[in-house]
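Let us work through a complete example step by step.
Step 1: write down the sequence.
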Amino acid sequence: MSNPVDIKIARINKKEDVGRSIDKDKVHEVFQRNINEKLKSFYRLQQDWVNRAYKNFNDFDTYLILMYLMNKVYVNYSDRFHYMSMEAFYGQEKVGIDKLNLIEISKDLNIPKETVRRKINYLQSNDIIIRSGKSIFLRSKGLEIQKPMSTIENLSGLLSKLSMHLSVEDWFGQPLEKEDIKKFIIEHFTVSWEYWYRFQIPYLVRHRTHYGDLESWNVWGSIGLVQIRDLIESIENDVTRKPETYRDFFLATLKHKSKRGINASSISDISAIPRATVIRKLKSLEKKKHIIRNKKLEYSIGNNREHMKKIEENYITSQRSFSEYCTTMFNLMKFSKFSI
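Step 2: predict the structure and record it as tokens.
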């Protein structure tokens, strides 16, 4: 039995395809059978996206709040079954949100209300947003900051690769070409990006909540990625060691003794976070035993059990959520009136 379809997707289904949909559990199962390839592509996409996001303001919280506001616009369009291409959306001088509620933003993003207020004031003073009573307008400058051309390129490539793995299943059909996916996202931008943000915002909030700030998470993640990539390389051609589930892969990562770590300068170069900030975050993470340092001043994942248990929970949740996001996109591209 297939899973319930989001009502917004159901409303844009072609008549002949009403009731048809790809099952998200089946997609998740196939992804687990192709963990190495899937995770390698996913983390490459995610790290590139997060680092680009930071560079806009040299601050994650400001960008996260702007994402939240943008998604309010996408959801509003979707609720009215109004869908726009990228060209049409970014061609607007400004877009509006009926009501700005700082308490709601604070609660949804788990960011203190006063911090939200400061970031909103920063966006306003830099002409990215305009406030009028409780309403808010995002100006073209704010829209341009969010224009995700490189992310669309990377995401289209990843979805195409994943569709190839799924195409071996009789319920999926033909794989999708990268250029067709890219064209789909650009032509149906607001609905496509609404679902990207539905995945991405909770993903960031989960990690911000655990680490206290996204800079610390990104520093830890840069260290973890070195270990993950080293593990993938070591087992790529070794069938007997290939993990069969996401949890197997996570446990294998913890047990893996990486041949190399990463130093503060390299983390700064990769993340664009200033080296002084990186060093401060490293000291805090090391004190909590979230990371360990070797004689070469290179860092690798630590062994704090409580921390790793929470990371495992976030990791499993994120992989499930990403499978659901991919399922939604494949359903849109295959069974909606927008279909490729």
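Step 3: interpret the result. The beta strands are 94-97, 129-132, 135-139, 291-293, 299-301.
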